[in-house]
Design brief:
GO terms for molecular function: glycosyltransferase activity. The protein has 130 residues and is mostly beta strands. The chain has helices at residues 78-81, 119-123; strands at residues 21-34, 37-46, 52-59, 65-69, 89-97, 100-107, 111-118, 126-128.
């Protein structure tokens, strides 16, 4: 990085869409877990209903995915169906607080959601690929 910019020619995809997804991407900041492990939230947009769903991944310093979960947050009820962008839960930030993981995000562009769970329980949902 020079002058706090990233050369676009150096960017490489690290997640591919599944056949049922329109797109996937990062959606949160990183939370450092160890010397070379960082927890990040990611999202996928489903083709059939355009809903946004969220999962977690562990990446290394180089941005390579070490572990990934299936979707952990998904729209389920009226609160996620209402708003300018229905069926959307979009993670905006992760916070590690004591033994908990707190995930803050927008819900359907009309309110904010705060989701909390035990960090170890969340990490149990990830599948190691490296």
């Amino acid at each position: 990085m020079k002058n706090l910019t990233i050369d676009v020619e150096t960017l490489e995809p690290v997640m591919a869409v599944e056949n049922w997804e329109e797109k996937v991407g990062w959606s949160t900041n990183v939370v450092k877990l160890s010397g070379n492990e960082y927890l990040v939230g990611w999202h996928g947009v489903l083709k059939d209903d355009r809903s946004y769903r969220n999962g977690l991944a562990i990446v290394d310093k180089g941005g390579d995915i070490l572990a990934v979960s299936n979707y952990l947050l998904a729209p389920k009820g009226l609160k996620e169906s209402y708003g300018d962008c229905p069926l959307v839960i979009f993670g905006n930030g992760l916070v590690k607080y004591k033994e908990d993981l707190i995930w803050v995000g927008g819900i359907s562009d009309y309110c904010m959601g705060i989701f909390a769970t035990n960090l170890e329980k969340a990490l149990e949902k990830l599948k190691w690929i490296k």
